[in-house]
Design brief:
The protein is α+β, with helices and mostly antiparallel strands. It folds into four domains: 13-222, no CATH class; 243-357, no CATH class; 381-611, Rossmann fold (3-Layer(aba) Sandwich); 627-701, no CATH class. The chain contains 20 helices and 28 strands. The strands form seven sheets. The chain has a nine-stranded mixed beta sheet, sandwiched between helices. Strands 4, 5, 6, 7, 8, 10 and 11 form a seven-stranded mixed beta sheet that branches. A four-stranded antiparallel beta sheet has the order 2-1-3-9.
Length: 705
């Protein structure tokens, strides 16, 4: 549970303890980063009874006045897992690089929504729960400054004061009273396992807290879980013999499972991305036989023909059988991932190769030379340098940000043949199909407002609305949609765009964070896009941390992603080019909101949105310095924070960010102010409290930028 009414500024020590306990955390007093108890063995497996908690933190409790406290990780706190990045230490860059790689590979570089705190020493700690029975629920220190705390471990919590004189603090928006703790996704648990094996397992600095408080090697915690099926393994559980069979079975099983998730054959790029993920799983489970510390694991596996080249060869041949053997295996009722039953699949590859070479056979893939590639047509645009034609993209933002108004403005511009949209040329006009099962009551007022404000007649234009609920997870519904759009095209002409408003409305019962479910949604959108050579727009919501909600499948599949930013009720806002695959992105275009009073006997109003200037923020010509200077400014902000004397927002202070930027670089005050405001809005920097006693605030570069 969360407690939105919890006030950290006025909370007593007992209030903090009750907050944590209400969220299932085994909270205990601490001193010098250790539990302040004579013995804590008995408290490591379940929450203490109410009587014991009251004896510690009740009205007259022994520790009711002590703000120094921490959590026993593991089962005592509902299977609590803590990942500690000691980014403040010498060599802390390795910890930061590890976490950035994990997020980039598995979550499109986006932070996970869970509890997150800064330690008094400057470290970053994230908290998750893990499923019961997880075999790597151990404590481990690693040689890259990443520590893991699980069963029998301990984590200091706010508002405990660190030896440095700074308090442990929850990051804004990531505190237990603001956000629920997240269940660690499978890919994160796999990365933790890999981390322990490669950087902590079996090493002297890798520890697990035993039931009596003693520490044992983390390697001991997982060594007993090694397979005993006859294959050979090294001391860390990595397979060294039978790797060709392991690779073959993993490839075949993965491709068959992928077909079961969605029978539409993936693109070459999607196939390579999937193969890369699966290779990482394979490489994490095997080791080379050759011992050579001067060379990488990949180089040694390649020399033994057990590396990425052989993996890709097997993967490519399996994908060639997508519509034949793979489809046949995927259709088997009750089929399971019994990879060893497919040992004859390499023979099928050989047959397919011969068929491809035979006259009248399947033929070879098209191969392009450099001259062929240079002669390919340039990308075509629906909206110049913003929306690629015949693509899939998203417009997203929080409720009330006016993303529907922006989408309708685009749609009506396409259907009425407008030459531009927001001063960008529209290079294709035609029919628009708008799918929306919500907000239909005032849609006519929005259309009337657009007509009145733009002074463009919309009656008789090829704009069509589908207002029934459609389930993009149901093949029958998607087939009906294709037939419907086909009928519209027969009546009005070619389809320029299809808008889905909103994505969540066409995914009833689906789990937006599941890759499998969102892959089916993307496949349905691709079916529409490819069938009608149209651009598909998905209108979507933000998550709690401001990113686009759901699995990384969607932002990964998007050829363009436009974020809409607007404070609730504000008469201004902006669109931010989060991703433009074929052009420059990262720019921001401000807009103004106008209330339109509609003509008629009964008074009705609606809103219209217009760009406030022709050049977007961050674009050349607005006075911003070049990228090198911007990096210098960002680095200076980071340096000031680390020195304990950060720049701040206030203009009447010697620490004023605007004043210091103007002093150090030839930049005007309004430009410096615009830079800080834009970076704050984009989440690159934040102004947070750095002195718990004076409550002084300063700018800090956000981790990850």
């Amino acid at each position: 549970m969360m407690d939105a009414g919890f006030d950290p500024e006025f909370a007593a020590a007992s209030d903090w303890a009750r907050l944590y306990r209400a969220n299932g955390v085994q909270i205990v007093p601490c001193k010098n980063k250790m539990p302040r108890l004579k013995s804590w063995k008995e408290y490591q497996n379940a929450l203490v009874p109410d009587a014991q908690f009251e004896a510690w933190y009740g009205h007259d409790g022994e520790f009711a006045q002590s703000y120094d406290m921490g959590a026993l990780t593991g089962t005592a706190s509902g299977h609590l897992l803590m990942i500690d990045l000691d980014i403040y230490k010498a060599g802390g860059y390795a910890a930061a690089a590890w976490w950035q790689r994990v997020l980039a590979v598995h979550n499109n570089g986006m932070a996970l929504e869970t509890w997150e705190q800064l330690t008094g020493g400057g470290g970053l700690q994230m908290f998750f729960t893990y499923p019961p029975g997880w075999k790597f629920a151990v404590n481990a220190k690693t040689d890259i400054n990443v520590d893991i705390r699980c069963q029998g471990g301990f984590a200091v919590l706010p508002p405990t004061m660190h030896a440095s004189g700074k308090a442990y603090t929850w990051i804004d928006g990531r505190a237990p009273w603001e956000i629920p703790i997240a269940l660690a996704p499978d890919w994160l648990l796999e990365e933790v396992e890999k981390l322990i094996r490669e950087h902590g397992g079996g090493q002297a600095n890798s520890t697990q807290m035993g039931a009596n408080g003693t520490q044992t090697g983390a390697h001991d915690a997982y060594a007993s879980h090694m397979r005993t099926d006859g294959a050979q393994f090294d001391d860390f559980g990595h397979q060294t013999d039978g790797r060709e069979t392991k690779m073959r079975d993993l490839v075949w099983g993965a491709v068959v499972d992928w077909h079961r998730e969605c029978p539409i054959k993936p693109s070459e790029r999607e196939s390579r991305d999937k193969a890369s993920v699966k290779y990482d799983i394979y490489a994490d489970q095997v080791s080379p036989r050759i011992i050579d510390p001067s060379r990488t694991k990949t180089e040694l596996l390649e020399e033994e023909d057990r590396g990425p080249a052989e993996f890709w060869r097997k993967w490519s041949r399996a994908m060639e059988l997508w519509d034949t053997k793979v489809a046949e295996e995927a259709r088997k009722p009750g089929a399971k991932k019994d990879y060893k039953s497919y040992t004859d699949y390499t023979d099928e590859f050989a047959k397919a190769e011969e068929q491809a070479k035979a006259p009248g056979g399947a033929g070879l893939y098209e191969v392009l030379s450099v001259d062929d590639i240079l002669g390919m047509a340039d990308p075509t645009w629906l909206v110049d340098k913003l929306v690629v034609e015949q693509a899939l993209g998203f417009i997203y933002g929080p409720p009330g940000c006016l993303k529907t108004f922006i989408a309708l403005d685009m749609a009506l511009s396409f259907t009425t043949g407008q030459p531009t949209w927001w001063n960008r040329s529209v290079q294709r006009q035609g029919t628009v199909v708008y799918i929306s099962s919500e907000g239909q009551a005032d849609l006519k007022f929005r259309l009337q407002a657009w007509e009145q404000h733009r002074k463009v007649k919309i009656s008789g234009t090829p704009f069509r609305l589908i207002r029934q609920s459609i389930n993009f997870m149901d093949p029958a519904d998607v087939g009906k949609l294709l037939a419907t759009v086909d009928a519209v095209a027969a009546e009005t002409g070619p389809i320029a765009a299809v808008f889905v408003d909103t994505v969540s409305r066409v995914l009833p019962g689906a789990e937006e964070n599941l890759q499998k479910d969102m892959s089916l949604f993307v496949a349905a959108c691709d079916a529409v896009r490819q069938r009608f050579l149209a651009t598909v727009f998905g209108l979507h919501h933000t998550s709690r941390n401001g990113n686009m909600r759901g699995s990384t499948v969607m932002p990964g599949a998007g050829d363009f992603i436009i974020e809409v930013r607007r404070e609730p009720g504000a008469m201004s806002g902006s669109i931010y080019a989060f991703k433009i695959k074929a052009a420059e992105d990262g720019w921001e275009q401000p807009f103004a909101v106008t209330e339109v009073v509609l003509n008629g006997i009964v008074r009705h109003t609606s809103l219209m949105i217009d760009p406030v200037d022709e050049a977007p923020k961050n674009a050349p010509g607005r006075g911003w310095p070049d990228a090198a200077v911007c990096r210098e400014i960002l680095s200076a902000i980071d340096d000031q924070w680390k020195k304990g004397d950060p720049w701040c927002f206030a203009t009447n202070s010697s620490r004023s960010g605007v004043t210091n930027i103007v002093k150090k670089w030839p930049i005007k005050r309004d430009i410096a102010k615009d830079i800080l405001a834009t970076w704050t809005a984009q989440g690159m920097i934040e102004e947070v409290e750095y002195n718990a006693k004076t409550h002084a605030k300063g700018y800090r570069k956000v981790f990850g930028f």
